[in-house]
Design goal:
This protein is about 45% helix and about 20% strand. The protein is an alpha+beta fold.
Length: about 550
């Protein structure tokens, strides 16, 4: 069992993002301050150099320096320039570095505190140095006399504290921007954390991993087909059993409507039809479908559809019903046969032989079951399977008061090679016809089955004396759940005809109903079903 961490994953992400934002902001702030400090020092140095150049081109200062400045002209001129420009100092020296001017008069006549050699050598110098007045950004230029002779130097400096004050103003303004950026980053990180928590439904990564493992184990371990549909109607999950039952393996994100060709199953997959233990057909299979909508905290997460294969159970249930009905019919016929034997025995014991003979003739003429084959044709159904199958159906129909007949045009020379498909198609058509004839108004109630072999193909026509189908149901009756009768004892209706058509179409055949308003309706038939089953007869049928 996994141990839940003290700090949730979403909070860890939030802390990490906030830390990254703060670190980046602080590094950017420091880097910008460092660059601004260098830029300001360079600007102040260039400013000092410009002032020094303007002083060095003054001819009166050059003449005074050359004469040794007996009238202290240089000091007066330099101080005026210093006051006007806001410089820390304006110092003029001779070629030995002896000052002729200084903001502190006591320093006049002394040697400068910094090295004047480069300026006296004819080079301009810009640097930050510490002198008698403290740290300053200064510029030094040579002082030329007549003929280009270097008389001395001019040094101008600006207080470094002014640089720091200006840098402080800039950094204070920039700090507001950095604080706003950090705040925005924190808010954005918090929003991302909340969105991450919503998208993961508050689950931690280790919980998501366990959930995926559990989901895979459950989906592929159950015996039912499971299909998960997202809110956009696309396939999110489809396990192996669902792929087998649907006959397709959809890709993740494929439209759910593409899992079924049509009918009720497609409407369930697309959400247009509710399903609670709903019986539908998929190909030749009978499926029980359930659909459940999934919601969490009021949020639509899609739907889960479960599929259970009931094909074998449905087949067994149909066969059991047929056997039960046949058993009831045989039991009733046994009682009737015993009564007739008692009557015949009584007539013989009393010596009424002629009456007994007449009674036997009446019984033979009144016997139910399949109609005899036409005399001008050989046995129309030599296949023992068809004979037994239709005889059983005739007994069941007779118990329901319906006479099942073989059509005069029936002739199947071959043997049945695919009994399962023949049972599915012919059996469903006959069962529907018997029910229609039993519930119809025409009497006597009867059903006619006509079978014709064409090579290896079998053509089937089933006519009943029922009330027929409305024109609007000639095609709709083949859809799942569509029936002219209500369900009995919880058994679903509307599956047999759809299953018969799908079985025939799987063999490239067809099942349909003829128009009841035609000649068949005038002959006393309510509905006429026509089926074509290619390849269900054996090879001997071709010979």
């Amino acid at each position: 069992m996994s141990v839940r961490p003290r700090i949730s994953f979403a909070r860890q992400v939030l802390i990490l993002q906030v830390a990254v934002v703060v670190i980046v902001a602080c590094v950017g702030y420091g880097l910008t301050g460092w660059m601004l400090d260098g830029e300001l020092r360079d600007q102040y140095g260039q400013r000092a150099l410009t002032v020094a150049r303007s002083v060095s081109v003054d001819p009166e200062i050059a003449a005074a320096v050359a004469a040794g400045d007996p009238g202290h002209l240089v000091q007066a001129r330099a101080e005026r320039v210093r006051v006007r420009t806001g410089a820390l100092f304006v110092v003029v020296t001779d070629n030995r570095g002896i000052r002729f001017s200084h903001p502190t008069p006591g320093q006049v006549g002394r040697r400068v505190s910094t090295d004047p050699s480069q300026a006296l050598a004819g080079h301009e110098v810009v640097r930050v140095e510490r002198g008698t007045l403290g740290l300053s950004a200064r510029g030094k230029v040579p002082l030329y006399g007549p003929g280009g002779r270097i008389l001395g130097e001019v040094s101008v400096g600006f207080d470094a504290r002014a640089i720091d004050r200006e840098l402080g103003h800039v950094l204070r303004d920039m700090s507001l921007f950095v604080a706003a950026a950090v705040l925005l980053g924190v808010l954005a990180s918090a929003a991302i954390g909340r969105r991450l928590k919503r998208q993961t439904l508050g689950l931690e990564p280790y919980e998501l991993v366990e959930l995926v493992h559990e989901r895979e184990a459950v989906l592929h371990g159950v015996g039912e087909g499971v299909v998960a549909i997202d809110p956009d109607g696309r396939v999110a999950v489809c396990n192996v059993e669902a792929s087998r039952l649907l006959g397709t393996t959809p890709e993740h994100g494929a439209p759910a409507a593409g899992l079924a060709a049509g009918g009720t199953l497609r409407e369930v997959l697309t959400g247009r039809h509710e399903a609670a233990n709903l019986f539908v057909t998929a190909g030749e299979r009978v499926l029980v479908v359930n659909r459940r909508e999934v919601r969490r905290d009021g949020r639509d997460l899609g739907a889960v559809i479960t599929l259970r294969d009931r094909t074998d159970l449905e087949t067994l249930a149909r066969e059991l019903d047929s056997v039960r009905t046949l058993f009831d019919a045989l039991r009733a016929q046994r009682h009737e046969y015993a009564n007739r034997l008692h009557t015949l025995s009584g007539l013989l014991h009393l010596g009424h032989c002629e009456e007994a003979a007449d009674y036997i003739g009446t019984l033979m003429a009144d016997s139910g079951g399949l109609a005899p084959a036409p005399e001008n044709l050989p046995d129309p159904l030599p296949d023992p399977y068809l004979q037994a199958f239709l005889s059983a159906k005739a007994a069941v129909a007779a118990e329901k008061g319906v006479r099942l007949e073989i059509g005069a045009g029936s002739y199947v020379p071959g043997r049945v090679a695919d009994a399962l498909d023949v049972t599915t198609v012919v059996g469903n058509l006959v069962d529907n016809a018997v029910e229609a004839a039993r519930l119809g108004e025409r009497r006597p109630a009867r059903v006619e089955v006509e079978l014709l072999g064409d090579g290896r193909d079998l053509h089937v026509t089933v006519s009943d004396s029922g009330d027929g189908l409305p024109p609007g149901l000639l095609e709709a009756v083949f859809d799942d759940g569509v029936s002219t009768r209500e369900a009995v004892a919880g058994r679903p209706r509307g599956l047999g005809l759809g299953l018969a058509r799908r079985t025939a179409r799987a063999r490239h055949g067809e099942v349909s109903f003829a128009d009841p308003d035609g000649r068949d309706a005038q002959d006393g038939w309510g509905a006429v079903a026509i089926a074509r089953l290619p390849g269900v007869l054996g090879a001997e049928a071709v010979q």
